[in-house]
Fold each of these.
Amino acid sequence: LLRALSAARPPEELGALLCNLSQAPEGRETLLDRSGEAVRRMLALVRRPEAEMRRGVVGALRNCCFQHEHHEWLLGPEVDALPSLLLPLAGPEELPEHEMEQLPVELQYLPAEQRREEEPDIRRMLLEALLLVRRGN
């Protein structure tokens, strides 16, 4: 699974497999292994051009957020999942300087070509993941 996640072109079915795997508590625990390899690799796939891959990976990440005991680790410096979950929701709008400085560095001064996630289902799952990690803290 880790090899497939690391491949230059991961198999199309990988997103759906991860989403299905993460529906079971055992699957979530495996993906949330403290080495962080699987989670970091999934976070890297959130911006893939293939909608099916993004949908599956974001679904898996959202499902992993149901494990409240992992929230601090997911948001902490070891994984730092917040920028990866927020970036697809961000647009190119300019914000006042004081607001810009409050954002994670990865979300500051985005280029004009930055676009929000186009797929409504994926945006919804990203928001659900953010709500889950917020409620758990």
Amino acid sequence: MRLYSLSVLYKGDPKVHLLKAAYDVSTFNFFQRSSVQEFMTFTSQLITERSALGSRASVKEQEYLCHVYVRSDGLAGVVIADNEYPQRVCFTLLDKVLDEFSRQVSKMDWPSGSPATISYSALDGYLSKYQVQTSRT
């Protein structure tokens, strides 16, 4: 069971844009990592774009499950995990991250924000904290 990506996005009027993201692509071949990360960013934006405000959904994309939560204020979160990761845990994580993000980052910064301009550093910590370590025999 593994988490690969945790993203916070803003679903604005014209389009969706990424505010902050954390990735764990360590299980992929070194030469594949940047393209896998791009795929995850693109998929997160696409799923958010196609989801209604105030909705939650889980979408299967290749061998991944993408869990999306779009709040009614336009703030959205996406977790990309493998098929075995518990769905309920993903939505609990998204609730926690979006609540904390909305308390720490001004709502006025969401429409124009980008990963370079938004200062919110908790995503990497959440991604590693919620990572399920499989026991090695």
Amino acid sequence: FQVKSENRKTIWNTEEVPEGSEFDDTWDPREQPEYQILFKQSVGTEDVFFGMSRKDPSTACCEDVVIKIKLPETKYSDITLDIQDKVLDLRTPKKKLLLHLPYRVDSKNGKARFLSEEETLEVTLRVSREFDFINFA
């Protein structure tokens, strides 16, 4: 697939359109649910007590991002969830959430669970980052 640069009538090319914008629908009347973004990291004794790694409590050292979405009066079977590298798209009959994620994630290996007693969907996604002086393992 090649983008033809000869066509001067185009306003933008496909590289300029942000990922996830195909889901954006300003005319959709469904309300956005409450949500919370949390960061999770694995630490061991060597990190906490001995300081042997370069990990700190910042989000730069977190391996996972957890999104908790409140979905009152929703059944698990009514939830449609689509995850891309930088976008989470959730739809139910009454709610809609298009969330641009703070970090690029591994969209193929996430986990989602619906806590029916709390009426909350919990989505855990592994952050995909380049290796640097902190994230080297």
